[in-house]
UniProtKB/TrEMBL annotation:
Catalyzes the conversion of N5-carboxyaminoimidazole ribonucleotide (N5-CAIR) to 4-carboxy-5-aminoimidazole ribonucleotide (CAIR). It holds the Pfam family AIRC. Belongs to the AIR carboxylase family. Class I subfamily. It comes from Thiothrix eikelboomii. Keywords: Isomerase, Purine biosynthesis. This is N5-carboxyaminoimidazole ribonucleotide mutase. GO terms for biological process: 'de novo' IMP biosynthetic process. HAMAP family: PurE_classI.
Amino acid sequence: MMQPLVGVVMGSNSDWKVMSKAVELLEQFGVAHEYRVVSAHRTPDLLFEYASTAQDRGLQCIIAGAGGAAHLPGMLAAKTPIPVLGVPVPSRYLNGQDSLYSIVQMPKGIPVATFAIGEAGAANAALFAIAQLALHESGLAKQLAEFRQAQCEFALNMPLPPPA
Ligand code: RP5
């Protein structure tokens, strides 16, 4: 089993529908990763352990998704020097605006790179992690260039209906 380079964590299994979009991309690019539930509020000791051992375990970054009072990414960032990429998960009552504000408004000195609310954010966090790894891995850089080219061609060939 390859040593994980990217950790994907989420506050609850109710976040999986969104966070699985990050895992899918990491799998598609063949990036060694791990994923699990780590909750800032329900499993605070696990959060501390996960963050404080992340660097020694070889993780290059952590993608963390949470909803509502989304303290997971910020608390991880407080406990590890490796980059934390935060994904605001849409919440039941405030549509993820609460998640976004909770994650993005970090105090100066402890950054969390914050992505869009929902599936686009999760996918982009994975692509960002891949882009960082690709700086030092030419095979991954080639895969990323091909992915972007395919996306470009898809957009160029998007059909539009005739005007009414
Ligand atoms: C957060 O609370 C989780 O990240 C999740 O988005 C939200 C709701 O969790 P559940 O009540 O669905 O487990 O900690």
